């Protein structure tokens, strides 16, 4: 298994690899810890610390990176994954749209359609955590991205339950009726625009967040 782990607007590949103020438990959004170092994790650096993907340039960058990694590392090309927060989430969505045969699954954390969606008609396993009080990329944007792959994956349409304001918790829903091998999953949480929410509080922590656990569980089902 190997993952592309994408930074947010203004973030860097060093922020992803170091785990920032939470340190190693949050390296690669906690996927290094959760995988017990069993996955190849790659943190690319976006131009201008973002993923504008003008003319598809960032998708081309990922294509080039895949060719190089496939040529240099012992990896399974059937187990490529992408995840990211905010703009990194938007870029993960863009990769699901543009390269459905390349990425087995994506986890779009608090993302929006800010890097485009060239293609976007083929199934890709999709997990979308999003805060109900997000004022940067409102939850309606996350729902719209989710619904693209609910349709593509043949899942039964529904309005999944979401936590109420003040509950300080999250609700994860696995969609029913999806095509075999292409699940759709949504996790709404009572908080704002952040990647590491913690139930019972309005703060965040890469050490104790549930997102890293649920993202790894979603990806690991394809191992």
UniProtKB/TrEMBL annotation:
GO BP of this protein: xylan catabolic process
Localization per record: Secreted
Any GO molecular function: feruloyl esterase activity
GO-annotated cellular components: extracellular region
Gene3D superfamilies, per the entry: alpha/beta hydrolase
Entry-linked InterPro entries: AB_hydrolase_fold, FaeB/C/D
Alphabetic keyword roster: Carbohydrate metabolism, Hydrolase, Polysaccharide degradation, Secreted, Signal, Xylan degradation
Keyword Signal found: yes
Function field: Involved in degradation of plant cell walls. Hydrolyzes the feruloyl-arabinose ester bond in arabinoxylans, and the feruloyl-galactose ester bond in pectin. Active against paranitrophenyl-acetate, methyl ferulate and wheat arabinoxylan.
Family indicated by similarity: Belongs to the faeC family.
Protein name: Poly(3-hydroxybutyrate) depolymerase
Organism: Catenuloplanes indicus
